[in-house]
C-alpha cells in the first residue's frame, strides 16, 4: 500500500512547478570570484600572480554574459516590471538580456583585470535561483555592504553596477526545463576605497520586503560574509 501511495504521489508531481512554492525560504546569496572553495579574497597589488586567479574566475563566469551571446539567445525586456509569462508550464520561456557591458567598470571590458591590478577589486553578487519567486513582492531588492566586524572607516567608498538594485524584469525564474537560456542577474560591487594591508570582514546583503538577512548561524541567507585583503 505504501509503495502504491508513493507511486501516486510521484506521478502527480509536476517537474516544472514545485508543489510547495509558498514554503520556499527567502533567497541565499553567493559571490564571484570563488576559488579554492573559499570566500576569502586576498592578493597583493604588486604581485599579478596573486590576483590573476580571481580575474580568470570572473572572466570564466561572465562568458555567458558576453553581449553577442545575450543578443543571440535572449530578448530586451522592460525594466522595472516582473516578466511574467502566462503560458503553458511546459512551454519554453523567453529570457531577458543581461549584458556584461552593463557592469561597466566591473565588466572586464573596460579593465580586463576587474580592478584588481589597481587594488580596487570587483565582486559579483547573485541571488540563488528560486522557481516562481518575485523578489520584493512589488518593490525592488537592493544591495548594500558594510564592515561586518571592525571599524566602518576601513570601507571608504564603493560603486554598484548596473546599480544597487536587482531589476524585477529578470524574475520570475521558471526552472531549467523551460527557462533554458535564463541568465541570472548580478550586482557588481566595485570596492574603490578600502584600507590596504589589513583583512576586512565584510557583509554584503539584500534589502527589501520578504528578505531575511539577520540569521546568525546562516552566513548565506540574504547576505554573504567574506574577507577581503588588499595588500600593496
TrEMBL record:
Identify its membrane topology class.
Answer: Single-pass type II membrane protein
Q: Which gene encodes it?
A: ATP1B4
Q: Which domain of life is it from?
A: Eukaryota
| PANTHER family assigned to the protein according to its UniProt record, in alphabetical order | PROTEIN ATP1B4 (PTHR11523:SF12), SODIUM/POTASSIUM-DEPENDENT ATPASE BETA SUBUNIT (PTHR11523)
GO CC, one annotated term: sodium:potassium-exchanging ATPase complex
A biological-process GO annotation: sodium ion transport
Function description: This is the non-catalytic component of the active enzyme, which catalyzes the hydrolysis of ATP coupled with the exchange of Na(+) and K(+) ions across the plasma membrane.
| Listed InterPro entries | Na/K_ATPase_sub_beta, Na/K_ATPase_sub_beta_sf
Instruction: Extract the Pfam families matched here.
Output: Na_K-ATPase (PF00287)
Sorted UniProt keywords: Ion transport, Membrane, Signal-anchor, Transmembrane, Transmembrane helix, Transport
Family to which this protein belongs: Belongs to the X(+)/potassium ATPases subunit beta family.
Q: What is this protein called?
A: Sodium/potassium-transporting ATPase subunit beta
Cellular localisation: Membrane
Amino acid at each position: 500500500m505504501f509503495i502504491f501511495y508513493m507511486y501516486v504521489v510521484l506521478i502527480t508531481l509536476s517537474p516544472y512547478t514545485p508543489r510547495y512554492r509558498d514554503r520556499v525560504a527567502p533567497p541565499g546569496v553567493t559571490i564571484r570570484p570563488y576559488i579554492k572553495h573559499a570566500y576569502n579574497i586576498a592578493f597583493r597589488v604588486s604581485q599579478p600572480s596573486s590576483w590573476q586567479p580571481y580575474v580568470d574566475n570572473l572572466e570564466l563566469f561572465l562568458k555567458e554574459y558576453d553581449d553577442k551571446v545575450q543578443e543571440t539567445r535572449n530578448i530586451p525586456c522592460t525594466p522595472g516590471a516582473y516578466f511574467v509569462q502566462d503560458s503553458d508550464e511546459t512551454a519554453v520561456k523567453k529570457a531577458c538580456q543581461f549584458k556584461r557591458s552593463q557592469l561597466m567598470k566591473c565588466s572586464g571590458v573596460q579593465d580586463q583585470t576587474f580592478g584588481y591590478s589597481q587594488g580596487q577589486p570587483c565582486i559579483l553578487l547573485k541571488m540563488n535561483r528560486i522557481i516562481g519567486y518575485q523578489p520584493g513582492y512589488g518593490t525592488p531588492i537592493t544591495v548594500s555592504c558594510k564592515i561586518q566586524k571592525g571599524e566602518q572607516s576601513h570601507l571608504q567608498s564603493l560603486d554598484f553596477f548596473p546599480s544597487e538594485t536587482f531589476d524585477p524584469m529578470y524574475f520570475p525564474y521558471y526552472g531549467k526545463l523551460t527557462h533554458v537560456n535564463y541568465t541570472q542577474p548580478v550586482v557588481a560591487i566595485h570596492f574603490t576605497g578600502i584600507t590596504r594591508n589589513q583583512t576586512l570582514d565584510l557583509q554584503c546583503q539584500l534589502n527589501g520586503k520578504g528578505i531575511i538577512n539577520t540569521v546568525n548561524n546562516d552566513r548565506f541567507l540574504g547576505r554573504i560574509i567574506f574577507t577581503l585583503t588588499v595588500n600593496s
